[in-house]
Queue: 2 jobs
Job 1
Amino acid sequence: MSLLLRQRNLPIEDEAGREVPVRVESRGGATHAVSAPLEHTGLYRAFAGGVLRASFAVNPDPREGDLAPMPEQTLVAAFPAGRVRVLRTGDDLAVRVRQARFGRELWPEFLTLALLLLVAESVIGRWGMPAGGWKTG
């Protein structure tokens, strides 16, 4: 990028296509592109001679983010009523997420129902048989 910065015409654009004023400086034996403080986060592009030469991301200052957890009532109030499910530490999160995404698994109930129907079929089938069982003849 040092070749890039040696050129005096080095426009930088933000994601909206607005040009950012840049000046080229040499200090400490290196060439630097210096701009006014960038107001918006996002992807910026540097051009040299009308050709895209580099792109770079501008991230927010970590001191601007508050990583403290929000109170539960504040968090719930930010969403439509009835659409929030708060998961607490210690809950089986994998099961809860799968149930929220795909619904509850019903195979144990269907297996129980199938076994009950099998028993009922056996009982009803023997009901009409004579008391001595099958006679071979």
Job 2
Amino acid sequence: MRLDKFLKVSRLIKRRTVANEVCEQARVFVNNNPAKPAKQLKVGDEITIEYASKTVRAKVLVIPKGNVSVNDAPSLYELLS
């Protein structure tokens, strides 16, 4: 699954267009490397998102096939910090 779509489906970022913009600004890293929106994620990848005032790190646990309900979204990742 593409990075921008995973960020939206997992609700780490609310909208896919915002996820695209954040990736293009080099504020999203996968395994400590800057990542483009089209980066293909695998189970076990670590995502780091740099917001204005905080940094969020998450480990990918599940790659969904499609959309996920709001209640199931947190089960896609594990917050590391």
